[in-house]
Amino acid sequence: MVSSRSSSLTSGDTLKHAAIGAVVSLVTFFLPFSPAIGGGVAGYLHGPDREAGATVGGLSGVLAAIPGAVIATLIASVFVIAGPGQRSGLLVAFVFFLVILVVSVAYGAVVGAVGGFVGAYLNEEFSGPTETETERFRDPTTLREGAGSDGPDDDPDPDPELTGFDEADDGSDRN
Fold it and tell me: Per residue in 106-164, pLDDT tens?
């Protein structure tokens, strides 16, 4: 028997949502905790399951960390001068790349998972992008007619001059 968690993680939408979240993380790289923003988007798109949202958010953070580590290594490699016969400079650059990759993947996975959890919670709270009720978009007169009333005149409108803060004036003055 396949659990709902494993079926949601093997769907094709998981990778698509994680990739969208990674792109959001890369676009917002200049903001603090940008993997949380991308993970939140991925978790919100993935659905109301918080565990699956955290998973897709973490995957989003990992996908966003890889280009970041490559760019950081390219920038840092400017400072490593390796002439002919100097293999230690290339070794230092490679070790630096591995360290940056491990740290950025761990950071992206943890922060993205937190964002994915929050995104899935928000999806549950706001009924998500795919669970919009179609009744909201119908004409109000068709809803009244479908509810068994004789037409739009059965529900009289309140006094248009009265607001929620006004009270009906009975002619007495309370000073």
Answer: 999 999 999 999 999 998 888 755 544 555 555 555 555 445 555 555 555 556 665 65
Within a domain: residue 153?
A: no
Place of tokens 């990992």: 62
Q: How many CB atoms lie within 10 A of CB 57?
A: 37
Q: Greater confidence, 29 or 168?
A: 29
Compute the half-sphere exposure of residue 175: CA atoms within 13 Å on the CB side of its CA: 1
Residue 117 contacts residue 57 (beta carbons within 8 Å): yes
Note whether residue 53 is domain-resident: yes
Give me the phi and psi of 44, to 5 degrees please.
-65, -45
Considering the entire predicted model, what is its pTM? 0.61
Other C-beta atoms closer than 10 Å to the C-beta of 29 total: 15
The whole domain housing 114 covers 11-125
